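Async update (no meeting this week)

Hi team, since we skipped the sync, here's where things stand on the single-chain job. The sequence we agreed to prioritize is pasted below, unchanged from the tracker. I ran it this morning and attached the output directly underneath so nobody has to dig for it. Comments welcome in thread, and please keep replies under the output.
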Amino acid sequence: MPSRGAAFTEPSRGRGPAPGTPLETRLVRNDAQVQEAAFLRSIPIELEESARIDGASTWQTFWKLIFPLLAPMSATVGIFAFLYAWNDFMLPSLIISDPAMQTLPVRQNLFQTQFSNNYNVSFASYLMAMAPAILAYLFTQRWVMEGVTQGAVKG
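Output:
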């Protein structure tokens, strides 16, 4: 298989996140890089070659051919990043000490103590906490389904 140009397939090498960037941002960024690099490698090289034959430059190939194909992957990465930040428990529980500033998953921990659970209130809060994630998915569902079914049809 011919190798692709580094402009479209290789994640940035040697350049990490800026110093002082929170660890969870680094993890989400690295996960997104891996997912998008794998997705870009799955795009057939023949698409880029046909654009070159038609006279497209490197930037035209990227903006008119590759970039539109990235919409489903970008939606998927966006959903994963949102869910990762929305459901994070460990870092906010370590950093934020003011109860008024704590995130929802940290506050939900108050409903469970060592000897008792307040199931009514805890499950109501879990349901309310799921609402933004479900709304985010509903708005991006079209792109996610396109990304899932993109490789399913042979043609």
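Quick observations from my side:
The chain has a mean pLDDT of 75.
The radius of gyration is 21 Å.
Reply here if anything looks off.
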